[in-house]
Design goal:
With about 525 residues, the protein is α/β, with parallel strands linked by helices. It is built from 16 helices and 20 strands. Strands 1, 2, 3, 4, 10, 14 and 15 form a seven-stranded parallel β-sheet that branches. A four-stranded antiparallel β-sheet has the order 6-5-9-11. Strand 2, helix 1 and strand 3 form a beta-alpha-beta unit. The longest helix is centred in the C-terminal third of the chain and has 30 residues. The radius of gyration is 26 Å and the shape is elongated.
C-alpha cells in the first residue's frame, strides 16, 4: 500500500466560497477518492486561512471582530464542502492552537538556523493578495492615478514602511535550481514549472516574514510586537496537519510525499518560497505541486469587485450535487484557464449524463425487464466490448495518475458510448428472448458495473444508485458499493455475476433546459 497526501490551498475567510474555490477542492476530492479506489492510504487536507490584514479589514467592514468573522466564514466553507460531499480527512483552521504552535516552532527553527534577520521594509503591498511587490510586478492605473495597481486584483497597492524580520530567500536560489533540476516533474504542468524557474533565475530578494503594523496573526516568539506574515503562517498548515510539531513519526510517514493543488496566482508562494522555507528548516521540499489556471466567468477571474462570484449552492439547486461535480471535473482541463457558462453546463449535463449514461442505464433495465423477466444476465467472456473496457480502464488509471480528471472521465465515457453503439447495432429490444439477447444485455450491464466504479470519484450518489439498480447490492459476495471495488483488478471483464434483479427506477439524470 502506498500513501497519498493531497492538499488544497487553505482559503481566506474574508468572504464566502465560490465555484473557483470549489473547482480546486473538487479536484483534490476526486483524486483522493481515486487513490482510495486503487488501494492507497489517503490523507486529504483542506481548510481556511484566517489571519492577516485582509481578514481583519473584511471583519471591520462587516462590524465583527476578526475571530467572529473567521468563525462565520470557516463554517461557510464547511457547509459548502459538506454540500458537495467533499471527503476531506482533516479541515485545518490557522487560528487553531496546533497551527499556532507549529508555525512558531517551524519559524523558530529557520531563525535558529541563521536564515532570518531583522530589517526595515519599504515598498508596495497588495492587501487582497497579502503580498509584497516590486515596481516591475505592478501595472499603471489606466485612470491616470499615481498609485500603481496589483496586476491580479487591479486595485491600488499600498506603500508600507515598517520594522520586519526577513527570510534570506536569496541564499536559496541555487539550492532551488538544483532541486528543480533533479526533480523535473515536481511542478506541473511544464509551463508553470518554467514560470517558477523564471522567478528564481530572475533573482531572488530576501522577503519579510513578519508584520509589526498588524495584530491579527501568530506572534513571533523571538520578537515582541511582531506577528508572522500571513503567507508563512498559511503554508505551514501542510506540515501541521501531519504532526510536524506533535508526532514526528507520523510526519516522516507522510512527508515529503505530498501533492499540493493550487491556482496560478499563488505559484510564487508555493513553488519558490515554500520549498526554500522547508530547506531552511532542514526538511525536504514537497514531492508534487500541481498548478491550475483560473475558472473564468465571462472571461474574467471571479472577484467581489467584478460581482461575478457564483456559489456552489446556486448551481447544485439546478444540477444536483453529482451534476455539479461532473461539470467541474470533466469540463475544465487541469492547467490552463477555463471559462464557465451556465448554458455550457446544461449541454454537458444533457449530453454526458442524461443522454449517454442515463439513457444507457434506462434502456438496458427496460429491455432486461421485457426480455429477461427483470433478471440481469452475465456478460459474454468474448464480447467485443471486453478489449475496449480493458483499454478504457488502463487509460483512466494513467490519466488519474497524471492529475487529469477531465481526460480520465473522457476515457470512461468512451466505454459508455461504445456500449450504446453495441446496443444500437444488435437491437436486443427487437429480438426474441434467448442466449443472443442475454449476451448483449449482459455486456451492457458489465459496462455499467465498470463505469460505476470509474466514475465514482466524480459521481457519488448516482453511481451508488446505479450499483443498486443493476442488482449488485443484492448479489452475494459482491461489493456493496462501487467504491468497495479495487482498481484495476476488480474491473477485469466478467465481474458482473448475472442472475440478479435489475431495477429501472426514475431517470438517473433528468434532462434540463436553459429556459
Amino acid at each position: 500500500m502506498s500513501r497519498y497526501y493531497v492538499t488544497t490551498p487553505i482559503y481566506y475567510v474574508n468572504d464566502a466560497p465560490h465555484i473557483g474555490h470549489a473547482y480546486t477542492t473538487l479536484t483534490a476530492d476526486a483524486l483522493a477518492r481515486w487513490h482510495r479506489l486503487i488501494g492507497d492510504e489517503v490523507f486529504f487536507l483542506t481548510g481556511t486561512d484566517e489571519h492577516g490584514q485582509k481578514v481583519a479589514r473584511a471583519a471591520e467592514a462587516a462590524g465583527r471582530t476578526p475571530a467572529e468573522h473567521a468563525e462565520l466564514n470557516a463554517d461557510r466553507y464547511r457547509q459548502a464542502w459538506d454540500l458537495l460531499q467533499i471527503s476531506f480527512d482533516d479541515f485545518i483552521r490557522t487560528t487553531e492552537p496546533r497551527q499556532i504552535d507549529t508555525v512558531q516552532a517551524f519559524m523558530q527553527r529557520i531563525h535558529d538556523n541563521g536564515h532570518i534577520y531583522s530589517g526595515t521594509y519599504e515598498g508596495w503591498y497588495c492587501v487582497p493578495c497579502e503580498a509584497y511587490y516590486n515596481d516591475d510586478d505592478l501595472v499603471e492605473d489606466p485612470s491616470g492615478g499615481d498609485t500603481p495597481l496589483c496586476e491580479i486584483h487591479r486595485k491600488p497597492v499600498e506603500w508600507l514602511s515598517e520594522e520586519n524580520w526577513f527570510f534570506r530567500l536569496s541564499a536559496f536560489a541555487q539550492p532551488l535550481l538544483d532541486w528543480y533540476e533533479t526533480n523535473p516533474n515536481a511542478v506541473q504542468p511544464e509551463g508553470k514549472r518554467n514560470e517558477a524557474l523564471g522567478l528564481i533565475r530572475g533573482g531572488l530578494q530576501d522577503i519579510s516574514v513578519s508584520r509589526s503594523a498588524v495584530q491579527w496573526g501568530i506572534p513571533v516568539p523571538w520578537a515582541e510586537g511582531h506577528v508572522f506574515y500571513v503567507w508563512y503562517d498559511a503554508l505551514i498548515n501542510y506540515v501541521t496537519a501531519i504532526g510536524y510539531n506533535s508526532d514526528r513519526q507520523r510526519f516522516e510517514d507522510w512527508w515529503p510525499s505530498v501533492n499540493h493543488l493550487l491556482a496560478k496566482d499563488i505559484l510564487r508562494f508555493h513553488c519558490v518560497y515554500w520549498p526554500a522555507m522547508l530547506m531552511a528548516a532542514g526538511e525536504a521540499p514537497p514531492r508534487q505541486l500541481n498548478v491550475h489556471g483560473y475558472l473564468l466567468v465571462g472571461g474574467e477571474k471571479m472577484s467581489k469587485t467584478s460581482l461575478n462570484q457564483i456559489t456552489p449552492a446556486e448551481l447544485v439547486e439546478d444540477f444536483g450535487v453529482d451534476g455539479f461535480r461532473y461539470q467541474f471535473l470533466r469540463g475544465q482541463p487541469f492547467g490552463p484557464d477555463g471559462d464557465f457558462s451556465y448554458e455550457g453546463m446544461v449541454v454537458r449535463y444533457n449530453t454526458d449524463l442524461a443522454n449517454n449514461l442515463g439513457n444507457l442505464a434506462a434502456r438496458v433495465a427496460t429491455v432486461v425487464a421485457k426480455k429477461c423477466d427483470g433478471v440481469g444476465p452475465a456478460p459474454d467472456p468474448d464480447s467485443p466490448l471486453a478489449p475496449i473496457a480493458a483499454e478504457v480502464v488502463a487509460e483512466a488509471v494513467r490519466e488519474w495518475a497524471e492529475t487529469s480528471p477531465p481526460k480520465a472521465l473522457e476515457a470512461t465515457w468512451r466505454l459508455v458510448r461504445e456500449a450504446n453503439a453495441h446496443l444500437e447495432n444488435n437491437e436486443p429490444w427487437k429480438a426474441e428472448p434467448g442466449p443472443a439477447v442475454d449476451r448483449v444485455l449482459g455486456d451492457a450491464l458489465e459496462v455499467l458495473r465498470i463505469v460505476a466504479v470509474l466514475a465514482s470519484p466524480a459521481l457519488i450518489d448516482s453511481t451508488d444508485e446505479l450499483w443498486r439498480r443493476i442488482g449488485l447490492t443484492d448479489a452475494g459476495g459482491q461489493p456493496n458499493r462501487p467504491t468497495d471495488v479495487r482498481v484495476p483488478d476488480g474491473l477485469a471483464w466478467g465481474g458482473y455475476p448475472g442472475g440478479v434483479p435489475v431495477d429501472k427506477g426514475t431517470p438517473l439524470f433528468p434532462r434540463l433546459t436553459t429556459s
